[in-house]
Amino acid sequence: MPLLYTIGKLTVAPTLRVAFRPTVEGLEHVPETGGAIFAGNHLSVADELFLGTVVPRHLAFWAKSEYFKGTGVKGAISKFVLTGLGAIPVERAGGRAALSAFDAAIPALKGGDLVVVYPEGTRSPDGKLYRGRTGAARLAISAGVPIIPVGMIGTDKAQPIGARVPRPGAAKITVRFGKPLDFTGRPDDRASLRQMTDELMSEIQKLTGQEYVPRYAPPRAHPDPTRDA
């Protein structure tokens, strides 16, 4: 586990557990060793904080590549922190550049790390669960690892879009893990990837109870590298 991530587990994580007392269900589905993909709904920027708090192992999150390329003292600190956390840089320009994060995730997964993916490609604008993009399934097949469905509940109320930090007492936080989905040996053509992604989103919906919307969420300013290529 990267040093700064370890420090966060010893400081930030206990603080969040005390302040929010998140409920965790299905932790037995989190593997003790080996690579896996966590694929969940995305309600808030707090999703990453609480997921990292309850999972005992290191999680590799994506971060915008410009955070790794800043200049001056601020840029140096940003690069140091993200590198120390084991983050994977994402090129937000789209196209082949955006897929560099996908390429970087494969060796991490094969090396036994855990990578977090949000199939919706962006935060839900209204609390509903939107159609998933096929990148998570493609990544699982390419790396030969299972996908663990994740359901986050209450994070959108604890830290709504626009809020700078989570607010204790604003909502009850629940993190649910589903049984791993093993797509090993499945074909990776477009139709098969679509079917696997729909299976994944169905499992996430069972964990969250969200209303499902069979269309992609409204796009944000920048594309997500896990969306359909």
Keywords:
single chain; 229 residues; alpha/beta; Glycerol-3-phosphate (1)-acyltransferase; 6-stranded mixed β-sheet; two-stranded parallel sheet; 9 helices; globular; disordered C terminus
Share of residues in helices: 25-40%
The total strand number stands at 10
Largest sheet at a glance? 6 strands, mixed
CA distance, first residue to last residue: 31 Å
| CATH architecture assignment | 3-Layer(aba) Sandwich
- What is the average per-residue confidence, as pLDDT, rounded to a whole number? 89
Which blocks of ≥5 consecutive residues have pLDDT under 50? 223-229
Structural Rg: 17 Å
**Pattern of helices and strands:** HHEEHEEHEHHEEHEHEHE
Strand content: 15-25%
CATH homologous superfamily grouping? Glycerol-3-phosphate (1)-acyltransferase
What do we call the CATH topology? Glycerol-3-phosphate (1)-acyltransferase
Strand order of the largest sheet: 1-9-8-2-6-3
Number of helices: 9
General form: globular
Give the tally of structural domains: 1
Describe the structure.
Pfam families: Acyltransferase. Keywords: Acyltransferase, Transferase. This is 1-acyl-sn-glycerol-3-phosphate acyltransferase. One of its GO terms (biological process) is phosphatidic acid biosynthetic process. This protein has 229 residues and is α/β, with parallel strands linked by helices. It has one domain (3-14, 21-213): 3-Layer(aba) Sandwich (Glycerol-3-phosphate (1)-acyltransferase), CATH 3.40.1130.10. The chain has nine helices and ten strands. The chain has helices at residues 3-10, 12-20, 46-54, 72-85, 95-98, 100-110, 135-143, 155-158, 190-208, and strands at residues 23-25, 36-40, 59-60, 62-64, 88-90, 114-117, 129-130, 147-153, 174-177, 212-213. Strands 1-9-8-2-6-3 form a six-stranded mixed sheet, sandwiched between helices. The chain has a two-stranded parallel ribbon with strand order 4-5. The protein has a two-stranded parallel ribbon with strand order 7-10. α4 links the parallel β4 and β5.
